[in-house]
Amino acid sequence: MYHMSTKSEKMATWPIPKLLFSMGLPAVFSMLIQALYNVVDTIYISRYSQDALFAIGVVTPMVMIGLSVALGGSVGIATLVARRLGERKKEEAETVASTGLLLTFGHIVFVMLLCFFLGKPFIRLFTPRPEIVALGFSYMSICMYLCFGQHISLFFERLMQAQSNMLVPMFAQLLGAVTNIVLDPLLIFGYGPFPSMGIAGAAIATVTGQIFSMCFCIAFFIKDELKIRFKGLKIEGSRVRDIYAVGLPTMIMNAVTSFTTILMNTILVRFSENAVSSLSLYFKVQSFIFMPVFGFSQGALPILSYNYGAYNKERYYKTEILYIITSVVMMLLGTLLFKFKTDLVLSFFTMDEALHSIAKKAFQTISYSFVFAALSICMGSVFQSFGKGVFSMIQSVLRQIILLVPIAWFISTFGNVDLVWYAYPIAEIIVCLLFVPLTIRIYRQHFPS
Predict the structure, then answer these.
(1) How many domains does the chain have?
(2) DSSP state string for 57-72
(3) How confident is the model at residue 8 (pLDDT cuts 50, 70, 90)?
(4) For 385-442, what is each residue's pLDDT tens digit?
(5) Quick check: 154 and 76 in contact, CB under 8 A?
(6) pLDDT at residue 226 tops 50
(7) FRET partner for 416 with CA separation of 20 to 30 A, picked from 27, 38, 241, 317?
(8) What is the mean pLDDT of residues 200-226?
(9) What percent of the chain has pLDDT over 90?
């Protein structure tokens, strides 16, 4: 019989504000560190050349699809592990984790094949220029062929977070980010004994940081009370189905952002390459606003899943309300930053006046969507905690493809790129109007009065 461990006791008995912030803040810090991966490369690449900056903007959606697979798989595994621990089923939680690691190896192979077969044809959708194709594929191939560090580190990070261990994942992310930051200028520009590798150097710096994070996580997980065991392991369809019930929708939700960016780039490239680069810069910088909210989600989701498994309505409700308030406040601060300090934000990048003008308008306009996006993220966590990840998937597809892209295309017919950015807040507002009542109804179904 499984006796409550110190970690599980913490999940069950700590006051919710203390528990949520003790789990959420390290995850927020971890995600801010993760955001550095997105931004540091771009800052240095913008100083390397405008062509390289455009190439990064074109290939980033494909690279992010690989990240989406890693995130979705790890979230699905960790959510089910947290639920089984809440049900006092430690042995089953270990079986889920062991099965999940095998699935993670499959995800790595999938991402490598995706790059091999679709890499160059994808880049040619946006430009006929051979120099851009070469630059883009150089970055994409390194990131996707060597993605094992990213996938395995995320697997172990989420597994530890499912047990309320937030510090090891935070330090793992920090190690990877520092490695990336140190190597970026050395490998891009060729300082000291290092050769000048340009955009390939940025990719090598990124995957090296991911591999260091992976090694750090493995070193600590070896001593964890939750064990990975392959001896006698049977891959059962019901267990895999339960993992992907949350994991697959999460993959799709994250990949939807990449598909949306691809579709938006096809609209924007008709205006100019600078419009595509502006959207790329926005997504790099907005990660500093969104990543803390996603980090807080990482802290909230195991608590929500645990208390649903334990059927503790009061603790579930308190966690969700505090989670929503905190997320909305963070996004509101982000809106104020993007609206009133745009020049300060853009000053980190090297760009000409034409690119600066388009990017400034994009940053200011899209920021109106932040608060509504926070509500959508919180609602997605509720769906996932109840094992209804498909609702999160539908919500994400609706806000980012079914609504956003057609609205952006329609606005683009007016011939003014500055107006296209309004598609983002319009889509977010519509989704909130549709899904807030649905979320309340699903909550009441699982926790009837």
Answers:
(1) 1
(2) HHHHHHHHHHHHHHHH
(3) low
(4) 888 878 888 888 898 889 999 999 999 999 999 999 999 999 999 999 999 999 999 8
(5) no
(6) yes
(7) 38
(8) 94
(9) 62
Q: What is the mean pLDDT of residues 98-127?
A: 96
Query: Would you call 194 exposed, middle or buried from its count of C-beta atoms within 10 A (0-12, 13-18, 19+)?
Result: middle
Q: Under a CB-based contact definition with an 8 Å cutoff, are residues 226 and 97 in contact?
A: yes
Q: What is the pLDDT of residues 329-367, one digit of tens each?
A: 999 999 999 999 999 999 999 999 999 999 999 999 999
DSSP symbol at 400: I
**Do residues 286 and 333 make contact, with C-beta atoms less than 8 angstroms apart?**
no
- Residue 342, phi then psi, degrees to nearest 5: -60, -45
Residue 44 belongs to some domain of the structure: yes
Coil, helix or strand for 293?
helix
Tokens, residue 158: 């989420």
Q: For residues 386 and 16, what is the distance between their CA atoms, to the nearest angstrom?
A: 19
Residue 57 and residue 45 in contact, taking contact as beta carbons nearer than 8 Å: no
Going by C-alpha positions, the residue among 111, 200, 95 that lies closest to residue 149 is 111
> Considering the domain boundaries, does residue 359 fall inside one?
yes
The pTM (predicted TM-score) of the whole model is 0.80
Which residues form the domain of 108?
A: 13-446
Closest CA to 251 of 110, 349, 442: 110
Is the residue at 7 inside a domain? no
Question: Which of 65-74, 215-224, 401-410, 438-447 is the least confident region?
Answer: 438-447
- Torsion angle, CA of 79/80/82/84, rounded to 10 degrees? 170
**DSSP state for residue 414 in the 8-state scheme:** T
Cα–Cα dist 41/181, whole Å: 8
Within a domain: 438:
yes
Q: Which of 276, 281, 283 is nearest to 350 (CA)?
A: 281
Encoding tokens for residue 77? Answer: 């595994």
Cβ 253 vs Cβ 295: under 8 Å: no
With H, G, I as helix, E, B as strand and everything else as coil, classify residue 403: coil
Chain centre distance of CA 426: 22
Specify whether the CB–CB gap between 346 and 359 falls below 8 A: yes
